[in-house]
Amino acid sequence: MMMDVLHKHSGWIEVICGSMFSGKTEELIRRLRRAQIARQRVAIFKPEVDNRYSEKEIVSHSDQKLASKAVRNSKQIINNALEAQVVGIDEAQFFDPGLVDVCKTLANMGKRVIVAGLDMDYRGEPFEPIPKLLAIAEYITKTHAICVVCGNPANYTQRNTKDTAQVVIGAADIYDARCRNCFVPPEKETKQENKNK
Fold first, then answer.
1. Taken in order 59, 65, 69, 74, is the CA torsion positive or negative?
2. Active-site option among 27, 91, 187, 189
3. What residue spans of 96-180 are helical by DSSP H?
4. CATH assignment of 2-144?
5. Alpha-carbon distance 120 to 123, whole Å?
6. Does residue 121 register a pLDDT over 90?
7. % of the chain beyond a pLDDT of 70
8. What are the Cα distances from residue 94, in Å, to 48, 97, 170, 193?
9. pTM here?
10. Which residue, 7, 45, 126, 171, is most buried by CB atoms nearer than 10 A?
11. For residues 67 and 58, what is the distance between their CA atoms, to the nearest angstrom?
């Protein structure tokens, strides 16, 4: 009876979320490196659309890197992660809603699934599929950046362009980290511009 308990491995989901420049990818890389040091089989994925720094690596804003596989959609993850004990997924907000079921499937197969991504978009609204992943995750880590305006802990991502699409790939050239008080939602910014005319 005791042998069955020792051999039974239960999978789980960990979510690392926060604003841009808050160290999400850095934390993901740290956890995955520790798993590699422990000689666990690790598979790492990123969305094909995010090729800002590299097509074959996940890369943090602090230039930490780890080899990864770029995939077109969440369904491609399962077949490429069958042999892995630990599965890392970066920039989860750029994946389709099917990522939630993919993560559940992997965890149910006994794998440790570590997902990193933005929990809010540039409007300060929940950024799917992260909110659904937060609901089903066993472990959640919320990271914070430093507000570029006042230096307080930053939880929001300020877009500094007029683009209105939810997904606009960029880094410090387009986005800032802001705290609740310094964050200006796009609709508020538009109202202020109209008053000034």
1. negative
2. 91
3. 99-108, 130-136
4. 3.40.50.300
5. 8
6. yes
7. 87
8. 9, 9, 12, 30
9. 0.87
10. 45
11. 6
Q: Residue 97: which of 75, 113, 80, 115 has the closest Cα?
A: 75
Active-site residue, 91 included? yes
- The CA–CA distances, whole Å, from 29 to 80, 103, 165 equal 19, 18, 29
Residue count (the chain):
197
Distance CA 58, CA 101 (A): 22
Please report which confidence band the pLDDT of residue 65 belongs to, taking 50, 70 and 90 as the band edges: confident
Asked if 17 contacts 24 with a C-beta cutoff of 8 angstroms, the reply is yes
Q: Which two tokens stand for residue 91?
A: 């920039």
112 or 1: which leads in pLDDT: 112
**Cβ-proximal residues to 12 (8 Å cutoff; 6+ apart), any chain:** 107, 112, 113, 137, 138, 139
Diameter over CA atoms, the chain: 77
